[in-house]
Amino acid sequence: MKNLFCILAFWLVAMTSEAQSSLRGVVQSNTGEELVGANVILSGTGRGSTTDLSGKFQIRNIPDGTYILRVTYLGYEPFTREITLPNSEELDITMNSSSLLTEEFIVYATRATDKTPTTFTNVDKSDIAKLNLGQDIPILLNFTPSVVSFSDAGAGVGYTGLRIRGSDQTRINVTVNGIPLNDAESHGVFWVNMPDFASSVDNIQIQRGVGTSTNGAATFGASLNIQTDTRQEEAYGEVDNSFGSFNTRRHMVKVGSGLINERWAFDARLSQISSDGYIDRASSDLRSYFLSGGYYGENHVVKLNIFSGAEVTYQAWEGVPEALLETNRTFNPYTYDNQVDNYRQTHNQLIYTGQFGGNWKANAALHYTYGRGFFEQFRSNDRLRNYALQPVVIGGESIERMDLIRRRWLDNDFYGAVFSLNYLSDNGRLDAIVGGGANRYDGDHFGELIWMQFAGDVNIRDRYYDNRAIKDDFNIYTKATYEASEGLYLFGDLQYRRIDYSFDGINNDLRDISGEVNYNFFNPKFGFSFQPDPSKSWYASYAVANREPVRRDFTDSPIVDRAPQSENLQNIEAGYKRQGSGFSYSANIYYMKYRDQLVLTGQLNDVGAYIRDNVDNSYRAGIELDAAYQVSSKFTVGGNVALSRNKIEEFREFVDDYAAAEFRQEVIVHNNTDIAFSPNVVAAAIFDFRPIKNFEISLLNKYVGSQFLDNTQNENRMLDAFWTSDLRFNYAMRPRFVKNLEFTLLINNIFNQLYEPNGYTFSYFLPAEGATGRELVTENFYYPQAGTNFLAGMKILF
């Protein structure tokens, strides 16, 4: 045994003393562009690297010997070379554009390029991965220009949202692989239904303003165009685990086959996220999966994606009353143990893209999404008449109110097809696309009483309301970019959109909402870009968008004097972009003129629900600056700032008057007021420091100016400005037994700032105490975000 230990010790010493070398180089395209994020792998060793902002890479501690070096980058032919170590030379690797059809064309029709005259930001997989510890996409995009993100539970898990240029999620068009994601009725995107979706995202393009024509609801502030994971050349496995404050946990397993026989690839992901939330009882239990398989021919790609999410989230929708912000910031009025939102949504996408000759490419996709779930509520001393029930008589006493538990259900199907056909002329001067889509939404809305304090004349599955909505959405567009002269590109984009929307049944306020509406929209866009050289670009554009009201506007509309009108937006964008060696910057101005924008005014319908009404004229105007500079190989600084003015020319506020002899609403006219939730300043600054190889320290700062809770510009109904700073540590190592081992520590809000990025308000008149007359009472509710908290994660790549 002693001899065995001696031999083992000698072998270990020999292994550790084996000659070690390093390999370094730079990766460029055949046009001389540095390729950032290219994968560099020594086949069979599990060792590799990715290229940095200068296209450079380095692999350390490699035993001397002969290896096959393999470099891959999306859209380029794989590069292979046999190398022998030691080798002191810096490799100069040039990659050629791929002759194989790539997955980039799946989203090409709805994407802006460097020749498109609109304002956009690209976020790639590496940017997402640095922050991805289980928080939702709105939180991960928080540091991009003009974005304000928030979380109901206060910790970035559960219900989250974002605004871009002051426009909320219902006005931000979102597509996944060119397929609409926004709910067809509310126009919202509920990221909680897609837990850990960021782990299956390859890249996101954020277009601010109207942008280019896309599928789904009209863009009225911005659009998010998401592309899911593309194929990997080599087989891989990945395990991510993270934990943090508020008992937050994330577990993710991901595997991929790589390219099999140069034609087939399969990928799968399974995720589970849980959190207690910062707000009391605002817990989340989230589960999801992503499956993908595809055939990759030289001229044709067929791909099937199936992804699903299930969430059970304790409700934190009510917010914290202003009076409790200083004494109980985590207050949640709900205490019933099953006051939850419970929903599952499954997406199916069958995608084809093909190349025909040297000039034509085509893309088509069939999709089907099924969602079903409910939110459950305990209702204290509720009126039975709200549920179409007669009073319960017990011992001669008529009981009209009692405690009960209700569930409000949504059971919906969304399906359709999208397509695009692209023509590129032989000389490359004309790039034209015809595209469109036809989609149907079929949604059942119904409510049930599952418990009553006293037995009434109702069975457990009886529905006290039940209605169905069908919405057909058809659009077709054509867009083209033409190089009129050297570096001057002309752009045109014409879209026609048709909406047929019908309702049938009883709404939750027990009104018959049966009816039908139809809309026809024409959305033109024109502009130009000028590139005196590949590193500089000027652009300007004019675009029009029209948008139908959301479901609630229609279901409430029969009781008002006039039905809600569609909204119109005219958008002017102009800017300059500069890309240099180690630096980049851009500046743009915008003007967004709204006609008939729908806003909450305080006006009531005939059953006491608050409705939205059109305001004649409003606008947003601003300037956005974005820059990044690599000070040295160890230090990079970047940031953005948006300065804006957001106004409604005339706003009519309706205030409930309980001081009058009979209830009425008083109308107060306001002129030239700020649009709600539209800060005049939004800024971010990021400092990245790399003291040693594979170790990065980042300081992430965010500033959001003050914003108003409604359109009255009343300083008593306001969200205060805030500045937060987060600290992130990333360390990656490449031991022999795995391809990559990465550790991340994210400390959020390191200065423990108390801030609220979201809230709501309402006001009313009451009789004045101890005197005649009346007084105005305003109630503000806020969604506080967590103070200093942390998330830590470990990622293992096999």
From TrEMBL:
<feature type="domain" description="TonB-dependent receptor-like beta-barrel">
    <location>
        <begin position="328"/>
        <end position="750"/>
    </location>
</feature>
<keyword id="KW-0408">Iron</keyword>
<dbReference type="GO" id="GO:0009279">
    <property type="term" value="C:cell outer membrane"/>
</dbReference>
<dbReference type="InterPro" id="IPR008969">
    <property type="entry name" value="CarboxyPept-like_regulatory"/>
</dbReference>
<keyword id="KW-0813">Transport</keyword>
<keyword id="KW-1134">Transmembrane beta strand</keyword>
<comment type="similarity">
    <text>Belongs to the TonB-dependent receptor family.</text>
</comment>
<feature type="signal peptide">
    <location>
        <begin position="1"/>
        <end position="21"/>
    </location>
</feature>
<dbReference type="Pfam" id="PF13715">
    <property type="entry name" value="CarbopepD_reg_2"/>
</dbReference>
<keyword id="KW-0406">Ion transport</keyword>
<dbReference type="InterPro" id="IPR036942">
    <property type="entry name" value="Beta-barrel_TonB_sf"/>
</dbReference>
<protein>
    <submittedName>
        <fullName>Thiamin-regulated outer membrane receptor Omr1</fullName>
    </submittedName>
</protein>
<dbReference type="Pfam" id="PF00593">
    <property type="entry name" value="TonB_dep_Rec_b-barrel"/>
</dbReference>
<dbReference type="InterPro" id="IPR037066">
    <property type="entry name" value="Plug_dom_sf"/>
</dbReference>
<keyword id="KW-0998">Cell outer membrane</keyword>
<keyword id="KW-0675">Receptor</keyword>
<keyword id="KW-0472">Membrane</keyword>
<dbReference type="InterPro" id="IPR039426">
    <property type="entry name" value="TonB-dep_rcpt-like"/>
</dbReference>
<dbReference type="InterPro" id="IPR012910">
    <property type="entry name" value="Plug_dom"/>
</dbReference>
<dbReference type="InterPro" id="IPR000531">
    <property type="entry name" value="Beta-barrel_TonB"/>
</dbReference>
<keyword id="KW-0798">TonB box</keyword>
<keyword id="KW-0410">Iron transport</keyword>
<keyword id="KW-0732">Signal</keyword>
<feature type="domain" description="TonB-dependent receptor plug">
    <location>
        <begin position="114"/>
        <end position="221"/>
    </location>
</feature>
<keyword id="KW-0812">Transmembrane</keyword>
<dbReference type="Pfam" id="PF07715">
    <property type="entry name" value="Plug"/>
</dbReference>
<dbReference type="GO" id="GO:0015344">
    <property type="term" value="F:siderophore uptake transmembrane transporter activity"/>
</dbReference>
